[in-house]
Amino acid sequence: MKSKNFLIAGSILSADLLNLEQDVKQALDEGVDVIHFDVMDYHFVPNMTFGPAFLKAMRQKFPKAIFDVHLMVSPCSENIVDDYAKAGANWISFHPEACVHTERMLTHIQELGLKAGVALNPSTPPQLLRYLWDKLDFVLVMTVNPGFGGQKTIPATLTKVADVKAMAKEANKDILVEVDGGVKDSNIKEIASFGADIFVVGSAFFGASDKKAALKSLHQALNDE
Ligand code: DX5
Ligand code: ZN
After folding, report:
1. Is residue 1 part of a domain?
2. Are 84 and 92 in contact (CB under 8 A)?
Protein backbone atom coordinates (compact mmCIF):
# COMPACT_ATOMS: atom_id res chain seq x y z
CA MET A 1 0.00 0.00 0.00
CA LYS A 2 1.23 3.49 -0.88
CA SER A 3 -0.13 6.92 -0.04
CA LYS A 4 -0.54 9.32 -2.94
CA ASN A 5 1.73 12.36 -2.73
CA PHE A 6 3.33 11.26 0.53
CA LEU A 7 6.61 9.46 1.09
CA ILE A 8 7.60 7.34 4.07
CA ALA A 9 11.29 7.42 5.00
CA GLY A 10 12.28 4.62 7.37
CA SER A 11 14.98 5.67 9.85
CA ILE A 12 17.32 2.74 10.50
CA LEU A 13 18.25 4.26 13.86
CA SER A 14 15.47 2.14 15.34
CA ALA A 15 16.18 -0.98 13.27
CA ASP A 16 17.72 -4.19 14.54
CA LEU A 17 21.37 -3.24 14.06
CA LEU A 18 22.56 -6.83 13.95
CA ASN A 19 19.96 -7.73 11.33
CA LEU A 20 19.94 -4.56 9.30
CA GLU A 21 20.06 -6.22 5.91
CA GLN A 22 16.86 -8.15 6.64
CA ASP A 23 15.20 -5.10 8.21
CA VAL A 24 15.98 -2.82 5.25
CA LYS A 25 15.00 -5.51 2.75
CA GLN A 26 11.69 -5.96 4.51
CA ALA A 27 11.12 -2.19 4.62
CA LEU A 28 11.69 -1.88 0.87
CA ASP A 29 9.63 -4.98 0.09
CA GLU A 30 6.72 -3.66 2.17
CA GLY A 31 6.81 -0.33 0.32
CA VAL A 32 8.85 2.06 2.49
CA ASP A 33 9.82 4.72 -0.08
CA VAL A 34 13.14 5.98 1.28
CA ILE A 35 15.78 4.75 3.75
CA HIS A 36 16.80 7.51 6.20
CA PHE A 37 20.34 7.46 7.66
CA ASP A 38 20.87 9.52 10.80
CA VAL A 39 24.55 10.42 10.87
CA MET A 40 25.65 11.55 14.35
CA ASP A 41 29.05 12.64 15.62
CA TYR A 42 28.87 12.98 19.46
CA HIS A 43 29.40 16.70 18.95
CA PHE A 44 26.45 18.25 17.18
CA VAL A 45 24.24 15.70 18.94
CA PRO A 46 24.90 13.55 22.01
CA ASN A 47 25.02 10.29 20.08
CA MET A 48 27.16 8.52 17.47
CA THR A 49 26.12 6.53 14.41
CA PHE A 50 26.81 5.53 10.84
CA GLY A 51 29.93 6.37 8.81
CA PRO A 52 30.33 6.38 5.02
CA ALA A 53 31.73 2.81 4.90
CA PHE A 54 28.50 1.64 6.46
CA LEU A 55 26.45 3.51 3.84
CA LYS A 56 28.61 2.06 1.06
CA ALA A 57 28.00 -1.47 2.32
CA MET A 58 24.25 -0.80 2.36
CA ARG A 59 24.41 0.64 -1.15
CA GLN A 60 26.07 -2.55 -2.40
CA LYS A 61 23.20 -4.59 -0.97
CA PHE A 62 20.45 -2.23 -2.16
CA PRO A 63 21.56 -0.65 -5.45
CA LYS A 64 18.19 0.91 -6.32
CA ALA A 65 17.00 2.23 -2.95
CA ILE A 66 16.73 5.95 -2.23
CA PHE A 67 19.17 6.77 0.59
CA ASP A 68 18.39 9.94 2.54
CA VAL A 69 21.39 11.02 4.61
CA HIS A 70 20.64 13.38 7.51
CA LEU A 71 23.96 14.81 8.67
CA MET A 72 23.93 15.77 12.35
CA VAL A 73 27.61 16.62 12.41
CA SER A 74 29.54 19.74 13.31
CA PRO A 75 31.36 21.22 11.54
CA CYS A 76 29.68 19.89 8.43
CA SER A 77 32.26 20.12 5.64
CA GLU A 78 32.29 19.53 1.89
CA ASN A 79 34.64 16.59 2.56
CA ILE A 80 32.03 14.89 4.70
CA VAL A 81 29.39 15.47 2.04
CA ASP A 82 31.76 14.06 -0.62
CA ASP A 83 32.37 10.92 1.42
CA TYR A 84 28.64 10.21 1.82
CA ALA A 85 27.98 11.09 -1.83
CA LYS A 86 30.65 8.64 -2.97
CA ALA A 87 29.25 6.02 -0.60
CA GLY A 88 25.85 6.18 -2.31
CA ALA A 89 23.65 8.93 -0.82
CA ASN A 90 20.80 10.25 -2.98
CA TRP A 91 19.62 13.04 -0.70
CA ILE A 92 21.74 14.92 1.83
CA SER A 93 20.53 17.35 4.47
CA PHE A 94 22.60 19.21 7.06
CA HIS A 95 21.98 21.71 9.84
CA PRO A 96 22.86 25.34 9.06
CA GLU A 97 24.15 25.85 12.62
CA ALA A 98 26.89 23.35 11.81
CA CYS A 99 27.96 24.97 8.57
CA VAL A 100 29.41 28.42 7.91
CA HIS A 101 28.36 28.73 4.25
CA THR A 102 24.93 27.17 3.92
CA GLU A 103 24.31 28.31 0.34
CA ARG A 104 27.70 27.05 -0.78
CA MET A 105 27.08 23.67 0.83
CA LEU A 106 23.68 23.31 -0.86
CA THR A 107 25.25 24.22 -4.21
CA HIS A 108 27.96 21.65 -3.62
CA ILE A 109 25.42 18.90 -2.88
CA GLN A 110 23.41 19.75 -5.99
CA GLU A 111 26.55 19.85 -8.14
CA LEU A 112 27.24 16.29 -7.02
CA GLY A 113 23.89 15.42 -8.60
CA LEU A 114 22.11 14.85 -5.28
CA LYS A 115 19.03 16.38 -3.72
CA ALA A 116 19.99 19.03 -1.18
CA GLY A 117 18.16 19.86 2.02
CA VAL A 118 18.48 22.08 5.06
CA ALA A 119 17.52 20.55 8.41
CA LEU A 120 15.96 22.87 10.99
CA ASN A 121 16.16 22.15 14.72
CA PRO A 122 12.97 22.76 16.73
CA SER A 123 14.16 26.21 17.81
CA THR A 124 15.74 27.23 14.49
CA PRO A 125 13.61 29.80 12.68
CA PRO A 126 12.89 29.11 8.99
CA GLN A 127 13.58 32.65 7.74
CA LEU A 128 16.96 31.76 6.23
CA LEU A 129 15.11 29.66 3.65
CA ARG A 130 14.03 32.87 1.90
CA TYR A 131 17.56 33.26 0.61
CA LEU A 132 18.09 29.64 -0.35
CA TRP A 133 15.14 28.49 -2.44
CA ASP A 134 17.09 28.19 -5.68
CA LYS A 135 19.47 25.72 -4.10
CA LEU A 136 16.97 23.71 -2.09
CA ASP A 137 15.21 20.50 -3.03
CA PHE A 138 13.72 19.82 0.37
CA VAL A 139 13.53 21.13 3.93
CA LEU A 140 13.77 18.76 6.87
CA VAL A 141 11.81 20.07 9.83
CA MET A 142 12.94 18.44 13.07
CA THR A 143 9.92 17.73 15.22
CA VAL A 144 12.14 16.56 18.10
CA ASN A 145 15.58 17.66 19.22
CA PRO A 146 18.00 15.59 17.14
CA GLY A 147 20.05 12.79 18.64
CA PHE A 148 17.72 9.95 19.49
CA GLY A 149 14.85 7.91 18.15
CA GLY A 150 11.68 7.28 20.09
CA GLN A 151 11.03 10.83 21.31
CA LYS A 152 7.70 12.64 21.34
CA THR A 153 6.89 15.21 18.65
CA ILE A 154 7.15 18.77 19.99
CA PRO A 155 3.76 20.32 19.08
CA ALA A 156 5.17 23.83 18.49
CA THR A 157 7.31 22.53 15.60
CA LEU A 158 4.27 21.69 13.49
CA THR A 159 3.42 25.29 12.74
CA LYS A 160 6.91 25.56 11.25
CA VAL A 161 5.93 22.94 8.67
CA ALA A 162 3.04 25.18 7.64
CA ASP A 163 5.30 28.25 7.71
CA VAL A 164 7.85 26.60 5.40
CA LYS A 165 5.11 25.51 2.99
CA ALA A 166 3.61 29.00 2.95
CA MET A 167 7.01 30.64 2.42
CA ALA A 168 7.77 28.26 -0.46
CA LYS A 169 4.40 28.92 -2.05
CA GLU A 170 4.92 32.65 -1.79
CA ALA A 171 8.30 32.24 -3.51
CA ASN A 172 6.70 29.98 -6.15
CA LYS A 173 8.96 27.10 -5.27
CA ASP A 174 8.02 23.47 -5.26
CA ILE A 175 9.83 22.31 -2.14
CA LEU A 176 9.20 19.06 -0.30
CA VAL A 177 8.96 19.24 3.47
CA GLU A 178 10.24 16.25 5.42
CA VAL A 179 9.28 15.88 9.07
CA ASP A 180 11.57 14.01 11.43
CA GLY A 181 10.79 12.93 14.96
CA GLY A 182 7.97 11.20 16.77
CA VAL A 183 5.88 10.42 13.69
CA LYS A 184 3.45 7.56 14.33
CA ASP A 185 0.04 6.36 13.19
CA SER A 186 -1.73 8.45 15.83
CA ASN A 187 -0.27 11.80 14.67
CA ILE A 188 0.74 11.33 11.02
CA LYS A 189 -2.58 12.61 9.68
CA GLU A 190 -2.40 15.73 11.82
CA ILE A 191 1.21 16.36 10.74
CA ALA A 192 0.17 15.92 7.10
CA SER A 193 -2.50 18.57 7.63
CA PHE A 194 0.29 21.11 8.26
CA GLY A 195 1.68 20.36 4.78
CA ALA A 196 4.36 17.70 5.27
CA ASP A 197 5.26 15.60 2.23
CA ILE A 198 7.83 13.14 3.58
CA PHE A 199 7.56 11.41 6.96
CA VAL A 200 10.61 10.01 8.71
CA VAL A 201 9.50 7.04 10.75
CA GLY A 202 11.96 5.28 13.02
CA SER A 203 10.54 3.63 16.11
CA ALA A 204 6.99 3.47 14.71
CA PHE A 205 8.20 1.26 11.86
CA PHE A 206 11.58 -0.37 12.54
CA GLY A 207 10.82 -0.54 16.25
CA ALA A 208 7.50 -2.32 15.70
CA SER A 209 7.23 -6.05 16.26
CA ASP A 210 4.98 -6.34 13.19
CA LYS A 211 6.48 -3.97 10.61
CA LYS A 212 4.00 -4.86 7.90
CA ALA A 213 1.07 -3.96 10.16
CA ALA A 214 2.87 -0.82 11.35
CA LEU A 215 3.34 0.49 7.80
CA LYS A 216 -0.23 -0.40 6.90
CA SER A 217 -1.54 1.52 9.85
CA LEU A 218 0.59 4.59 8.95
CA HIS A 219 -0.84 4.55 5.41
CA GLN A 220 -4.37 3.98 6.68
CA ALA A 221 -4.05 6.95 9.01
CA LEU A 222 -2.70 9.11 6.17
CA ASN A 223 -5.46 8.09 3.77
CA ASP A 224 -8.21 8.43 6.36
CA GLU A 225 -10.79 10.94 5.09
C1 DX5 B 1 16.63 11.99 15.48
C2 DX5 B 1 16.62 11.47 14.07
C3 DX5 B 1 15.37 10.81 13.60
C4 DX5 B 1 14.93 9.62 14.40
C5 DX5 B 1 13.46 9.50 14.27
O6 DX5 B 1 17.80 12.70 15.67
O7 DX5 B 1 16.90 12.53 13.16
O8 DX5 B 1 15.48 10.47 12.22
O9 DX5 B 1 15.53 8.43 13.99
O10 DX5 B 1 13.06 8.46 15.11
P11 DX5 B 1 11.56 8.34 15.64
O12 DX5 B 1 10.68 8.14 14.43
O13 DX5 B 1 11.63 7.17 16.54
O14 DX5 B 1 11.25 9.62 16.34
ZN1 ZN C 1 16.81 12.07 10.93
Report:
1. no
2. yes
